[in-house]
Amino acid sequence: MRERAKTEGLAAQLRHPPGGRDGRTMLLTLFVDRTGTGVWAAACVLYFTELSRLTATQIGLLLGLSSVAGIAGTPLAGRLAASYGVRPVLIGCHLLRVAALGAVLCCSAFWPLLALVALATLGDRAARAMEMLYATEVAGERRSAYRALSRTAMNAGYAAGAGLAALGLAVGTPAAYRALVVADVASFLVAAALVASLREPFPTRAADGAAADPAPRPSPWRDAGYLRFVALDAVLTIDDAILNVGLPLWLIHSTRAPHALVPAFLVVNTVVVVLAQLRVSALVHSARQAVRVVPVYGFAILGCCAAAALAHRTGAPAASALLLAAAVLVTLAELVRSVVSWELSVALAPERARPEYLGVAGMAHSTEKAAGPLLLTGAVLATGPLGWLTLGAATTAAAYAQRRYGALRLAALTR
After folding, report:
1. Per the CB 3.0–4.6 Å rule, which of 71, 216, 356, 374 could disulfide with 366?
2. Helices then strands (H, E): number in the chain?
């Protein structure tokens, strides 16, 4: 299996992914889901500005508070999946997003919109936890290869969604903005229909008594070791905020690089992900390998932060080169994190309580989504190059701490 994963190209693996038919259907589901998400991400600010007439402060508050609400989505979904199965919960997540974003079309007041966007965000974060859990069960030992393929599907979906949004925003009429929201809602309906065609990967507590385990299931909330892993994992997802918030704002406000370079960060990210994700996933085939690779994330972030700091007082060509190098390094960190985090969140969790544990593990990314932009704007960018270097050093230290704690927990689990 490993040799096949290493020698097959991306296209061949997409045709014959781990998990067979169900794995392939889930990849299609991810593409459809992220297409809608890409539409919403690109259009929501203008929609709220032009149609709902919200102020910039109100939009920032709405998106920030809804991100906080999303943190609750993953542990809630994990708890429900343990009782009712992954497939029904994932369908419910998509339908919750359909209802919430469909209702956005019918109101423009701030507080109702806040409640609806918070529900949609909660459903989004919960859906991601269920997608991870489903892929873990279906892909089995080849989950690192499946993670690489899923990132291809997701990136393609984001690109398709951004393209659709660009068309609607170019038209710029209220009807075009509403059509984009309708397209978003439709994507989640299609995703729910695709999930309905999947099989349920494992028995649940709600199954018949023969399938149930009479012993009490361990709780992640009482597992200090796993909670420590999740807390460190939240720190080790800072690459997302660096790429999408930190580098663009730093370029605009603190360097001489041309502002037109900002879109290039996402182009670099997309190209590097496509070219390198399978190679990076080939580095990790076991939890022990994942533990050894964790520090690579810290050093990649440290290099990115050093490049950003050096760009502060250089000329435009040098600043541009340094910031593009930072974008490459943070993307490499993202690739390492996506494989290592998934592998360890599964391997460090008791198999018989995997839904609950992976639900809690999903809080790491949700927490970073809410806190990461605030950290970058409120602390790192405000303190200049020193802030960047401090962030890089702190992330590297967290990576080594994760390596140590991960190794200790693996040793304890194998006794």
Report:
1. 71
2. 18, 0
Crossing angle of helices 56-70 and 363-375, in 10° steps, is 150
Yes or no: say if 194 and 374 are a contact pair by the CB < 8 Å rule.
no
Q: What Rg, from alpha-carbon coordinates, does the chain have?
A: 21
Residues 6+ away with beta carbon under 8 Å from 197: 25
Q: Report the pLDDT averaged over residues 360-376.
A: 87
Q: Give 301-345 as a DSSP string.
A: HHHHHHHHHHGGGS-HHHHHHHHHHHHHHHHHHHHHHHHHHHHHH
Residue among 291, 395, 295 at smallest CA distance from 344: 291
Per-residue model confidence as pLDDT tens digits over 255-282: 999 988 887 887 888 888 878 887 888 7
Letter string b/e over residues 357-385, b meaning 16 or more CB atoms within 10 A of that residue's CB: bbbbbbbbbbbbbbbbbebbeeebbeeeb
- The owner of tokens 């061949």 is 12
Termini Cα distance of the chain:
27
Instruction: Give the CATH fold of the 16-197 domain.
Output: Growth Hormone; Chain: A; (1.20.1250)
- For the chain, give every residue range classified as CATH 1.20.1250.20: 16-197
E strand or H helix that includes residue 228: helix 224-235
Query: With 90 as the cut, is the pLDDT of residue 165 above it?
Result: no
By the 8 A CB rule, do 343 and 209 touch? no
Q: How far apart are CA 295 and CA 196, in angstroms?
A: 40
Query: Domain 220-414 is in which class?
Result: mainly alpha
